[in-house]
Amino acid sequence: MDVGKPAVAAGSRHSQQDLRAALDAAAQRVETAPDSALADAERALRVVPGLPPALFISAQALRRLGRSAEACARLALIPGGPRRPAMVLWEHAQAASEAGQAGTAIEALEALTQVQPGVASGWFLLAAELRKAGRDEDAWRADLSAVHAASRDPELLKAAAAIHDGKLDEADTMLRARAERLPNDPVGTRMLGEVHWRRGDMAEALQLVERAVALAPGFDLARDFLVRLLMQLNRLPDALHHAETLARSPVKAAGAELILASVLVRLGEQERARGIYEHLLEMQPEQPLLWQNLGHVLKTLGEQGEAIAAYRAAVTHQPSLGEAWWSLANLKTVKLGAEDIARMEAALGELAEGKGREEDVFHLHFSLGKAFEDAGDAARAFEHYDKGNKLRRTLIRYDADEFAADVDAAASTFTAPFLAAMGEGGAPAEDAIFIVGLPRSGSTLVEQILSSHSAIEGTMELSEMMTIAARLQSRVDEGEFADFGTMVRSLTATDRRRLGEEYIERTRVHRKTDRPRFTDKMPNNWQHVGLIRLILPNAKIVDARRHPMSCCFSGWKQHFARGQTFTYDFTEIGRYYRDYVRLMAHYDAAAPGAVHRVIYERMVAETEGEVRRLLDYLGLPFEEGCLEFHRNTRAVRTASSEQVRRPIYTDAVEHWRAYAPWLGPLEAALGDVATSYPEVPGALLP
Q1: What are phi and psi of 391, to 5 degrees?
Q2: Is 111 helix (H, G, I), strand (E, B) or coil?
């Protein structure tokens, strides 16, 4: 023990050795028998008052006996001030912290971190004490210094390497062993959270990363990870809170503002997001991704001219940025010309030489498909759409047989007798209007018409119902129930009410007005009509349907930012459409009148009559504003954002026929669904 020399003022060499041996033995018993160690140290102090090793051991013992203030007093007697050994400074800091002596703790820890700047635990404790003292910015910086010090910890480096190499079990074992020794280690806790995230265990990952942030509020990397986890779990208000906190970090990083903007976009706070992107571009005007993100926001806000300029700035700075080209092409009212085609073909040539990503390649093919389509060259347009779809299909997982089995399970569960047997239940709220169907079916048009009514607020494609459904399905996947039907039958009236209230509460963040009704335009919710009926029996469900050839071809040549994994193969999208028609026909039979169907071709041909019938179903009076939906300035995020800002047009009804020579596989997959439309073929009726 190097805490000063344990020499005695008088006595023999033998007594010095005895004293040293007694103190060494006491030091060994501090953790297991602090009262005995304290007695031995006290005896030594009676022999040699002020003996540093004896003061140190007595202080250690006193702290472990819960007498931290006395421990501080003993430690203060050890000479050397800030130049005392690191072990003395660490003990003094902990004792002062436990005794509520923040000033003393801070003084000791500031000295300790100067002596040992590479030891993370000292910085973390300093941050905690600074925070207690109200010095939040200094505390934040201390946490950041702690994380920097931890980045050189050999044990953590080894665990990080295992995670990087996909050896998650190995990393898990190392990090759990570390947690046994250091239960309050923020960095190890965050890393263990990452292991669980990579395994797909979102609940455990979230709990661990939240703990890491609670232990070290200035741990910016952990908070950034937490925001991303919360976004994945669709806990957007919580994500916003942490993103705003991250943006206030004393160590400014553009990434913090970018993630804040991403959360704002998800929440529909487009103007705030726009301000962030414009601010960042003032400082970094040559950043193509910033221009691209700004373009997305401007498109949603209906600022088409500015959106076009932003996307063009993005491809000017990075000609191979496929998503920006596709975003430009995806403004359905924009036509890409010969110069654009030449630039995109040149970019594809560069990417073929290994200078870019597959994501850029398939985006460019979709963009060139749209450009040649605008030029009236159907053959070359189809060639590029086909290449883009085939490449995209290799990068995603989708099993049409597995999906059909899920539809079978829903159909066999939600029968008329089953719904009658379940009886009343669910949340009584009438707020929600679900607009379901396939993408590119005219659902955005329906939403725009409805959101032009004074009683209805248009939100966006909300994922809350799909999240609830996935959580219920996970109970089957994890073996709690034998099958989907058994799980649904287990839901009590109270369960169903709670789930319905959860949906209403979770979607409240997307509602910006006091209108009593709101739309949820997630098309995939057709899969969950039965669940909606159980948990929100008073909700309205509108099925937007379009000719299967037109709808499926339009979906196939549309690249979706996320989801809709069935759209990249003609056979798969055709089968998906048949499954959709089959299940919706089943629901029509099980609960007649529960779903109102809007046929796209009728809506564009007889708009007022169809709008009146739709509003009658919703129990709302007709308003002329619904026919002037194109004047509605609300933000629209879907692929049809620009089309719904125009009056009704019929151009798209027969658009697919120009590509008929290549659509044989789609026709074959659709079968009699295409020839019977809009009626349901007998083979699909329950």
Answers
A1: -65, -45
A2: helix
559 Ramachandran zone, left/alpha/beta (phi>0; psi -120 to 50): beta
Cα–Cα distances in angstroms (integers) from residue 304 to residues 308, 311, 327, in the given order: 6, 11, 12
Domains and CATH numbers, the chain: 13-150 (1.25.40.10), 175-394 (1.25.40.10), 428-582+591-653 (3.40.50.300)
The CA distance from 368 to 370, in Å, is 5
State how far Cα 574 lies from the chain centre.
30
Query: What whole-number distance in Å separates Cα of residue 69 and Cα of residue 220?
Result: 34
d(Cα 460, Cα 447) in Å, to the nearest integer? Answer: 9
pLDDT digits (tens, 9 = 90+) for 106-154: 999 999 999 999 999 999 999 999 999 999 999 999 999 999 999 999 9
Q: Considering only the C-alpha atoms of the chain, give the largest distance between any 2 of them, rounded to a whole number of Å.
A: 113
Judged against a pLDDT cut of 50, whether residue 252 lies above it is answered with yes
Instruction: Quote the pLDDT of residue 22.
Output: 86
Confidence of residue 653 (pLDDT cuts 50, 70, 90): low
Q: What pTM, to 2 d.p., does this model score?
A: 0.81
Residue among 118, 138, 139, 135 at smallest CA distance from 127: 139
CA 344, CA 365: separation in Å to the nearest integer?
9
Residue 652: pLDDT above 80?
A: no
Per the rule left: phi > 0, alpha: psi between -120 and 50, beta: everything else, 334 is: beta
The whole-number average pLDDT for the span 565-572 is 96
Q: What is the 3-state secondary structure (H, E, C) of 563-590?
A: CCHHHHCHHHHHHHHHHHHHHHHHHHHH
Q: How far apart are CA 523 and CA 560, in angstroms?
A: 13
Report the Cα 672 to chain-centroid distance in Å. Answer: 40
Residue 219's closest CA among 145, 163, 153?
A: 145
Structure tokens at 258: 């970018």
Amino acid 5: pLDDT: 47
Looking at residue 553, the DSSP 8-state letter turns out to be: H
Instruction: Provide the terminal-to-terminal Cα distance of the chain, rounded to the nearest Å.
Output: 84
The answer, yes or no, to whether residue 347 has pLDDT greater than 80, is yes
Task: Calculate the alpha carbon distances from 634 to 7, 138, 300, 431, 641 in Å.
Answer: 83, 43, 8, 19, 10
Please list, in sequence order, all residues whose beta carbon lies within 8 angstroms of the beta carbon of residue 402, skipping any fewer than 6 positions away: none
Is 575 within 8 Å of 464 (Cβ atoms)?
no
Give the residue among 165, 187, 169 at the shortest CA–CA distance from 178.
187
| Sign of the alpha-carbon torsion through 11, 15, 21, 25 | negative
pLDDT over 90 (residue 302)? no
- Nearest C-alpha neighbor of 513 from the set 648, 632, 426, 644: 632
Strand, coil or helix: what is 377?
A: coil
**Distance of alpha carbon 571 from alpha carbon 273, whole angstroms:** 39
pLDDT in tens, 253-289: 778 999 999 999 999 899 999 999 999 999 999 999 9
- Tens digits of per-residue pLDDT, 193-246? 999 999 988 999 999 999 999 999 999 999 999 999 999 988 999 999 999 999
Whether the pLDDT of residue 327 is over 90: the answer is yes
* Contact (CB, 8 A) for 54 and 30: no
Q: Which residue, among 504, 401, 517, 497, has the nearest Cα to 456 in the 3D structure?
A: 517
Q: In percent, how much of the chain has pLDDT > 90?
A: 82
Residue 637 has pLDDT above 60, yes or no: no
